[in-house]
Amino acid sequence: MPVPSSTAGGPRQFHPHSSRKSNIEYMFGIVGIPVTEIAIAAQAVGIKYVGMRNEQAACYAASAVGYLTGRPGVCLVVSGPGFLHALGGMANAAMNCWPLIVIGGSSDRNQETMGAFQEFPQAVRTSIYGRPGSCYIDIPGDFVNLQVNKRSVKYVECCLPPPISTAEHSAVSKAASIIAHSRQPLLIIGKGAAYSHAENNIRKLVDLCGLPFLPTPMAKGVVPDNHPNCVAAARSTALQHADVIVLLGARLNWILHFGLPPRFRHDVKVIQIDICAEELGNNVRPAAILLGDISAVTKQGLALQKSLPMNYYTVFHHIRELIPKDCILVSEGANTMDIGRTMVPNYYPRQRLDAGTFGTMGVGLGFAIAAAMVAKDRTPEKRVICIEGDSAFGFSGMEVETICRYNLPILIIVVNNNGIYTGLDADAWKEMLKFGDPATCVPPVSLLPNSHYEEIMSAFGGKGYFVKTPEELQNALKASVTDKQTPSLINVMIDPQSERKKQEFPWLTRSNL
Ligand code: ADP
Ligand code: MG
After folding, report:
1. Which family does it belong to (predicted)?
2. Which of 18-32, 293-307, 325-339 is predicted most confidently?
3. Cα gap 72→100, rounded to integer Å
4. pLDDT-derived band at 454, boundaries 50, 70, 90
5. What pLDDT does residue 304 have?
6. Is residue 490 a contact partner of residue 477, using CB atoms and an 8 Å limit?
7. 423 within 8 A of 445, measured Cβ to Cβ
8. Mean pLDDT calculated for residue range 264-288
9. What pLDDT, on a 0 to 100 scale, did the predictor assign at position 21?
10. Interacting residues of 425 by C-beta distance below 8 A, sequence separation 6+
């Protein structure tokens, strides 16, 4: 098996013993006159040959190899009935957009009229460039048994890996803005995404933007089925209610009910990402079209998403990736506690303490101190991590002195949006002060912008970090998780207007509480 590259969209690597030049590794087929020698010759150059019982199955096998490895599998057939049997597999590969090469042996060249015949490397290229698909090579019988001097055989250079195309920049921005303004977005992940090795990028998009997703049957596992954002169990509801659908390498054919009502909303906005221009706009008129390789295009999307300031989902994504699974989580705040509850999983019982039944703010640091004391005596390997909104932290911030006095290695993360629910950024704050007395114009939800809460920690000898970018956040998290001795506080600045996703059920919106 070729070793699939772990970096999505990166060049894939192949086994050193794969066939000469073209990296063809597998051939499936049934031999007969005149193609037997082709199978023998293939084995001689290191191609693994699997003799099957029917060309149709051989062709299905070869096409699946193409999908799994990104290099076409070969199906070897005799002319006439053998080739006819292979047609089912060729059509299946063409419909699936999977690379495949079928080699057939026909009668000798002097027995029929032939046009120029497609040479081997060209077929490899055709099968994997652009939209992948099936190709057929017909080798005349007399050609198979032609005697040549071995030394005169020239191997044609392998074609370059398929070129990776990115989408137009403006189309990516348009798609991002459509998603940002959506109420119920849905990613549909298709097998094109699987083929493109886009799993890492798609996973990041799902996590960073908190997007729900639905895999098509063969795209299951691109993002694991047990991911909390997987809506497969509520497929019909998800399709019916989505106001924006992002199609990642999936076609609006019968599998997706043609993208039409009643399975979809009349006014659904479709963002289509596909490598094949002809596919764009099939059945529905898309709101945005992104022509390009899924892995590359999702990377473009991530680059946009990385723009600052961070939002809650970005912050919790990094926290979730970097904190130990068995840590004791303490949390309080409004959005911070609510979004953190879905974004940061707990794996063990009795290891989450939060505002509780009474919805009390100010409990966090006391809870964290208690958890650290108990952990010290019973489970010293467990870390206590306290995730606080900036307002919630203020209720008992001076307990940081207690934490330092007893040298409890608690990690406090303050998710700071300059306010209660939402706040103002420094510029808006300055503008606002022009209106006069702060007591009459400062919004009651606002707290002082860019407050350096981490300095409370450093004031008492712990470590304080002020972070604004995902990289700074990652570094601070890594340093404070590794340092098991020192109390630390990471003050994470996020977009003051960052909000949780819109509530799906109207009776649950804040005005109705
Ligand atoms: P599913 O059956 O999972 O819905 P489809 O076969 O309908 O998937 O759609 C797969 C789509 O993926 C095709 O339209 C194909 O052009 C596209 N595709 C294949 N490879 C890539 C790639 N590397 N980047 C983008 N799109 C791709
Ligand atoms: Mg806040």
Report:
1. Belongs to the TPP enzyme family.
2. 325-339
3. 5
4. very high
5. 81
6. yes
7. yes
8. 96
9. 67
10. 418, 449, 496
The better pLDDT of the pair 81, 366 is held by 366
User: Ligand 1, closest atom to CA 215?
Assistant: 3
Residue 182 Cα, ligand 1 centroid: separation in angstroms?
24
Determine if residue 249 is left, alpha or beta; phi over 0 gives left, psi from -120 to 50 gives alpha, anything else beta.
left
Q: Quote the pLDDT of residue 146.
A: 83
Q: Which atom of ligand 1 is nearest to the CA of 188?
A: 4
Among candidates 97, 59, 89, which has minimal Cα distance to 218?
Answer: 97
Q: pTM of the entire structure?
A: 0.69
Of 357, 362, 352, 358, the residue nearest 393 (C-alpha): 362
Ligand 1 and 294: CB distance under 6 A? yes
- The identity of residue 91, as a single letter, is A
Q: What is the DSSP letter of 347?
A: -
Q: Is the ipTM of this complex over 0.90?
A: no
Model pLDDT, residue 107: 67
3-class SS of residue 387: strand
Classify burial at 510, counting beta carbons within 10 Å of its beta carbon; exposed 0-12, middle 13-18, buried 19 or more: exposed
218 pocket-lining for ligand 1 (C-beta < 6 Å): yes
Q: What local confidence, expressed as pLDDT, does residue 151 receive?
A: 86
DSSP class of residue 164 equals P
Torsion angle in degrees (nearest 10) through CA of 194, 199, 202, 206: 120
Would the CB of 399 count as within 6 Å of ligand 1? no
Ion ligand 2, residues whose Cβ is below 5 A away = 389-391, 417
DSSP at 133:
-
Expressed in angstroms and rounded, the spacing between residue 501 Cα and the centre of ligand 2 is: 16
CA of 261 to the centre of ligand 1 (A): 22
- For 74-149, where are the alpha helices, taking DSSP H only? 81-96, 120-128, 141-144
Question: What is the residue-averaged pLDDT of the chain?
Answer: 89
* Interval 23-63: pLDDT, tens: 899 999 999 888 999 999 999 999 999 999 999 999 999 99
Q: Are 413 and 463 in contact (CB under 8 A)?
A: no
| 443 neighbors 420 (Cβ within 8 angstroms) | no
Proximal ligand: closest to the CA of 418: 2
Cα gap 320→203, rounded to integer Å = 13
Q: What is the pLDDT of residue 10?
A: 34
Which candidate, 44, 21, 37, 245, places its Cα nearest to that of 125? 21
